[in-house]
Amino acid sequence: MSRTILINESPFGLRIMAADEEGRPVRLLYRLRGQGPQAGSVYWARAGRRDKRTNLQRFDLGAGGEGVLPVKDRQVPEGQMALLGVRREASGGKLPLLTDRPSIHLPAATMRPGSSEHRPGPLGLLEPPGSIGFLKDKPKAPGPAAGVPPAALLLASAAKGDTEGVFVSSGALSAMLKPFVPDDIPIEVASDLPKEFAAVTADAMNRTVPLEEGGALIIDETEALTAIDVDLGTAAGQSARGAGDSLRKRVLNELGRVLSVRSIGGQVVLDLPRSAARAPKVLRDGLTAALKAHGAVSIPAVTKEGLVILVLGQNRASLLETLTETGVDAPLPGRRFRPAVEAWMAYDDALSATVEGRGLGTVSLTPAAAQVWKDADASSALLGLRGAEPSLVVLDRDSERTEA
């Protein structure tokens, strides 16, 4: 099954989407401006104290903030510099998780310090640009050890060997990515990417995911785990056994894609009707096959009552956590878009307005989102792209922010 990659850059950050040959999204990643250390990046880090309770040692990453490294008897002396990689991005209030076996995962190469030979990446093997490499000497201050564009790392996370084309939002982004992508995979500039991302993101924020021919996945994310209730729906003329078997197949066809698009990892509890789980081994084997393409997965339990526990690998926050937040005026389970995302949505709408002939008009934002807009100089970006600036209106209260 072939896939197409779409990459959009704006003053607020980067986002990337992978779509299958039917045009269905199979991966959706956002990286907001100033988000913090990115999975796959490498830092020279200064060792701090070790927490003996957790066997985690803190490291100063410079402008990247802090991260933690699992240690036991091999603690790095406090104050010493070490070359470390970011294994998992910050999420759920936890600092980035580091590794002392760093490597840079590019779209068409995996680089390791001290080695002149590179392993293939998801798009094959291509000699990395000469500007990409590890600093050979320890610097005096902590910071990035290799100058890898964030878009290249993001592309490596979404690409697969069946990628047949990459569409980007600007010529500058195309030129930057070209050295990282094999010549047989074309990179083209497309003007309508913001609209496509907006539609896919809106779908990914929905709590309910309808299944073909009836039924639905109802998804509830918490910091501890993700619960997915499988609704049987109605299907006239089916026996309980037939309806259960049919539902199980529809769930297996959709579950992996849904988890991948939403970047859901960690512990996932699946609650199916008993009729769909009457043969636990069949269900377990089906889940293993369906989720194999989406990374490491373990299935500690499958019961005949329909409860399934999945444990999935995760190297970044879920899409919901990346794009939304809770607040005093948005009690759980309600969430609202982060200020940067709210500003980005307004930017997308302004771009679409000019394409549709509506003009830029007015951009209305809460104080927090308006500040993000100003810091990103979004009005000047629109002036460069569309030859005009919108009028910025700041709302009176943060409580008027858009709910997700």
Automatic annotation (TrEMBL):
UniProt xrefs under Pfam families: RNase_E_G
An example molecular function term from Gene Ontology annotations: hydrolase activity
Protein's UniProt keywords contain Metal-binding: yes
Listed GO CC annotations: cytoplasm
Top-rank taxon: Bacteria
Cofactor list: Mg(2+)
Keywords: Endonuclease, Hydrolase, Magnesium, Metal-binding, Nuclease, RNA-binding
InterPro entries: RNA-bd_AU-1/RNase_E/G (IPR019307), RNase_E/G (IPR004659)
RNA-binding protein AU-1/Ribonuclease E/G domain segment(s): 202-308
Protein's GO biological process: rRNA processing
PANTHER family: RIBONUCLEASE, RIBONUCLEASE E_G-LIKE PROTEIN, CHLOROPLASTIC
Protein name: Ribonuclease E/G
Organism the protein comes from: Parvularcula maris
